[in-house]
Write a structure and sequence with these properties.
The chain folds into four domains: about 140 residues, no CATH class; about 90 residues, Beta-Lactamase, CATH 3.30.450; about 80 residues; about 150 residues, Histidine kinase-like ATPase, C-terminal domain (Heat Shock Protein 90, 2-Layer Sandwich). About 55% of the residues lie in helices and about 15% in strands. Strand 1 and strand 2 form a beta hairpin. The radius of gyration is 44 Å and the shape is rod-shaped. It starts with a helix and ends with a helix.
């Protein structure tokens, strides 16, 4: 079906169009000729009757073909009325001055009536057009809201626009994902480049040779995509409504994708936490057996050779370490699943630091330098085991990501109503753009990814532990802008217990 503008142009809409204008004018002239012929053959039509009949013909043409046809016919009718009905008949002159008034009144009445009729027709046509646009917009909004959730929304929206607005080709560009969604029977090969230009410029462009229009799709004042359509000749208000509906569809696409990703991530995290918890508990049984066997060997260790005693000692130490790691894995699984329960007590921050450092015996403990004076600081009100776990994660990171022989400094001080533990290394440091990202789950910076073992969970767990205590964890540049300083803030006893 042709668009409303094209129908109006060629004369399919009543009262408009070039063809209907000429047809109406010619038909009106023919009817006038018939009336004149009848009056000449059968003198039953006087001047007054002829004037009313001519006026009716003019109004009929105005109703059917518009003002231009009826205005031209009004002039023809006035001349014919003067020539055939006003004396002297057969001449284009008027003998009686009263007839000038009658002729002028006829012409004015014909023109005014034609104008009013044409305006009524135009308003009726405009009302029909608006009604159709409203119906189309309702159909489009309903189609977008009732899209099949099992299929991509973008192609469905493009196909709905093509069907509802009778367009042979509709293409939607989602600029954020750089995705194209097509609808209609015709595929425009170079539409993407034109649409990208419209998104960049933010203005409507028309390509007359292809009857193609490309509009930017805006949301929140910025272009998020573009709509290209062939033969979509709607009013500006209707087009803007279509663009708003498409923007809603694109936003719905992104919302659903984000929701799906979040659900997948939640299920994945839940599965990993459950799996880690199950594996950690399964490790407990063989570790207990190993520990018991090693302890038994230690009892009879005097009968063993020196090298065998050393091996038993190593096995016992590593069994203790592995048991501690499994316990920490269980704790981390609980923290990740949000099932952790705090067992707070008032403790000295220095004792927590010493406990964390002691766990690195034989694995870099000699590199850790603890500053004095921490015993004079206020007590902290925390779960000691969980805070030691957080400190272990920070110390392990500092030892792992700094030079093998470089020292790691630990300083404890009171600051802003809290006790802050600063763990400082002299490694390569962390760029400012990554100082928040390193606390995200599984994030590992490209320079260290693959060079050092790890999962990217340690810093995330440490920050979560700090925050569930009412504290915080952040990173600063190290002294002299080399290395990094991780700052663990813990609540004081008075502040938390109050």
């Amino acid at each position: 079906m042709a668009s409303w503008a094209l129908q109006r142009k060629i004369g399919l809409v009543p009262g408009t169009g070039y063809f209907s204008g000429w047809i109406g004018f010619a038909g009106g002239v023919g009817v006038l000729a018939v009336l004149i012929g009848i009056s000449m053959r059968y003198p039953v039509i006087n001047a007054s009757t002829a004037g009313f009949l001519f006026l009716i013909v003019v109004l009929g043409v105005a109703t059917a073909s518009g003002f231009r046809a009826s205005a031209g016919l009004s002039v023809v009718a006035m001349i014919a009325y003067n020539f055939f009905f006003l004396p002297p008949v057969g001449y284009l002159t008027i003998a009686d001055p009263d007839n000038w008034v009658a002729l002028s009144a006829f012409l004015v009445t014909a023109l005014v009536a034609s104008h009013l009729s044409d305006r009524a027709q135009r308003e009726a046509a405009e009302a029909r057009r608006r009604q159709r646009e409203t119906e189309q917009l309702y159909s489009l909004s309903r189609a977008i809201l009732l899209t099949d959730a099992g299929r991509p929304i973008g192609p469905q929206a493009a196909q709905s626009i093509a069907q509802i607005f009778d367009s042979p080709s509709v293409t939607i560009l989602d600029a954020k994902s750089n995705s194209l969604f097509r609808g209609g029977s015709v595929d425009l090969a170079d539409a993407e480049e034109r649409m990208e230009d419209v998104v960049r410029l933010g203005v409507h462009r028309r390509f007359a040779e292809e009857d193609l229009d490309v509009w930017p799709i805006a949301l929140g004042g910025s272009a998020i995509g573009a709509l290209a359509a062939v033969g979509l000749r709607q009013s500006d208000g209707a087009v803007q409504s279509v663009l708003n509906l498409v923007a809603i569809a694109l936003e719905r696409v992104r919302t659903e994708e984000a929701a799906n990703k979040a659900e997948i991530a939640r299920q994945s995290e839940e599965f990993k936490s459950t799996l880690l918890d199950a594996i950690a508990h399964e490790f407990k049984t063989p570790l207990t057996s190993i520990k018991a066997a090693v302890t038994g060997l230690g009892v009879v260790g005097k009968e063993l050779a020196a090298d065998q005693q050393e091996l038993v000692s190593i096995v016992e130490e590593e069994a203790d370490r592995l048991s501690q790691l499994v316990t920490e894995a269980v704790k981390m699984a609980e923290i990740d699943a949000g099932k952790v329960t705090l067992r707070r007590a008032a403790v000295n921050a220095g004792s927590l630091v010493r406990a964390a450092v002691a766990s690195f015996a034989g694995r870099g403990e000699e590199r850790i330098r603890v500053a004095g004076g921490e015993d004079r600081l206020p007590l902290v009100f925390v779960d000691a085991d969980l805070v030691v776990l957080a400190l272990r994660q920070l110390l392990d990171n500092a030892l792992k990501y700094s030079e093998a022989a470089s020292p790691v400094s630990v300083a404890v001080k009171s600051w802003d109503g809290r006790v802050v533990v600063r763990i400082i290394d002299v490694g390569v440091g962390i760029p400012e753009r990554d100082r928040e990202r390193i606390f995200e789950k599984f994030y590992r910076r490209p320079p260290v990814r693959g060079n050092q073992p790890g999962t990217g969970l340690g810093l995330h767990i440490a920050r979560e532990l700090a925050r569930i205590h009412g504290g915080d964890l952040w990173v600063e540049p190290g002294p002299g802008r080399t290395g990094s300083a991780f700052c663990l803030a813990l609540p004081c006893q008075d502040e938390t217990s109050a």
